[in-house]
Design the sequence.
């Protein structure tokens, strides 16, 4: 099942989901020809059970977010080469404090935000070198 899609332009788009809901099996697919064909680009060592966030920064840069199989640990991954290789940011303590990151977006390659369960927000202003966990927004049910 695919959950989210992000298009950079009319040719390049990325979609994420979970191949086996409840059991894990995260999936990342990319197209460079307007959706005529899609290529699976899931990191071979991805431990996430569910990917629900994706942001296409340009034709080769993509960020994905989600959670592990149990939903207790947030995950964030980035590729800078069209999904050939991936960098895992899930071990960062601020990212790990997040819960089930269902959305991710960026302003540029340095400023990225991910949001998730219990109104959590994690962000970076330096391309993922360091991350900040934000308290739930004022007025939210979790505040």
Sequence:
């Amino acid at each position: 099942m695919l959950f989210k899609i992000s298009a950079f332009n009319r040719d390049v788009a990325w979609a994420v989901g979970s191949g086996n809901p409840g059991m894990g099996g995260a999936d990342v697919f990319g197209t460079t020809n307007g959706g005529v064909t899609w290529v699976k680009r899931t990191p071979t060592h991805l431990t996430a059970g569910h990917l629900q966030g994706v942001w296409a920064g340009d034709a080769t840069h993509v960020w994905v977010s989600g959670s592990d199989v149990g939903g207790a640990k947030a995950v964030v991954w980035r590729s800078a080469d069209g999904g050939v290789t991936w960098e895992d940011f899930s071990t960062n303590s601020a990212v790990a404090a997040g819960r089930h990151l269902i959305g991710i977006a960026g302003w540029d390659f340095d400023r990225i935000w991910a949001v998730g369960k219990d109104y959590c927000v994690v962000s970076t202003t330096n391309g993922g070198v360091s991350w900040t966990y934000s308290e739930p927004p004022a007025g939210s049910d979790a505040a």
Q: What stands out?
A: The chain has a mean pLDDT of 86. Residues 29 and 40 are 4 Å apart (CA to CA).
